[in-house]
Structures
1.
Amino acid sequence: MTLPGTDFPKIPNMSSTAIVPTLVRPNNRVAALVADAVLVALGVGLLALSAQISIPLPNTPVPITGQTFGALLVGGAYGASRGFVTFAAYLVVGGLGYGVFADHASGWSVLKLSSATGGYLVGMLVAAAFVGWMADRGWDRNPWRSVPTMVLGNIVIYAFGFLWLKHATGLSTHGAWVAGVRPFLPGDAIKIVLAAGLLPAGWWVRDKIRH
């Protein structure tokens, strides 16, 4: 029987088989909420720091940043639900005026359709959830699966960024490719290798400790 006024809404299921949720498993609801809040805060901090690794490029309004690495790593380490929530929280923090975006930028204007870089941020939100979804299914356990997972996540970021940039600037398809994708391919390849390597390495360390 449920007493009147005690039928509280259920908290969404945040269960995950990604590496961080398997390491942090509180045994009561309050501790679980605190742990989730701490993990989200740490993830937002990591994303904010990675965004400040920013290198401007000629002939494009989009700089090279460490955000791609941060988004893919948070998604893969946290799983789909926490990865999505963490990046969404990061966008909200930036939108509210805290300088967590690249070059300490902030404000909702960064996410508007008229923003040249807004599409990359929205793409990272989707990519974090996608990579987390793949990690929840074991695709983060070894490099042979982790690398293609990260590549697909990066393609998601490019798709949003490319289309958004093209709309915001009025560039042609070729122009948007030259300004919004091609200059970032070598650097993103390095970031993908780093993110894809850290997750299997984390599982290896976890298994060594437990055994």
Note: The beta strands are 54-55, 64-65.
2.
Amino acid sequence: MTKYKRILLKLSGESLMGAKGYGIDEEVLMGYAKQIKAVKDRGIQIAIVIGGGNIFRGLSGTNKGFDRVSGDQMGMLATVVNSLALCSAIKSIDTKANVLTSIDMSPIGEHYTKNKAVELLEEGHIVIVAGGTGNPFFTTDTASALRGIELECEVMLKGTRVDGIYDADPEKNPKAKKFNTITFNEVYKRELKIMDLTAFTMCKENNLPLVVFDMDTYGNLEKVADGENIGTTVTL
């Protein structure tokens, strides 16, 4: 039995690099597509937001001569590239998927509206929302929270390269303690860096639970969808 009917899946752009260090690793991309299909085949409606850090990160561009607005717009385009790649991979394994863009980019993708996204989800399509929020100064984490709330998803699943939330960086501190569950207020209190505060506060204020898990271990997405406690769940 699956735990959720409709989920928002946030994927890291950096994870798509695999061992390449830049761009898209085709094996990682197809692994993601197969995991997503497995969950879709269990009857779960899936909306996806993917970052663009494997191609360009707007904030880092401000240190290289770009103004923040232009840098963020370049980052938005990077998310579109990743979204198109993921959509193509999903379609290649006989699963319906669509890219909707937060800014008008026809014919690359249809312009995002809640009604259109919900219509596609209910028709059995995977919906990938590209372009962030469509505005500078907002991260794809914030876009994920916004779309998750707007589309009335039951949970936001944040797929990362680590297996949950720790009280310290587990890559730097081998004694770091992992949380199985934690409240939003406790995250604030401990000043844990899960996502940007705008996104995190939106989830808290709209009671959208958050699950942080390791997406790079094949099969984990399906386990999370089944309610297995393999990551960290953040709730009120």
Note: The two ends are 24 Å apart (CA to CA).
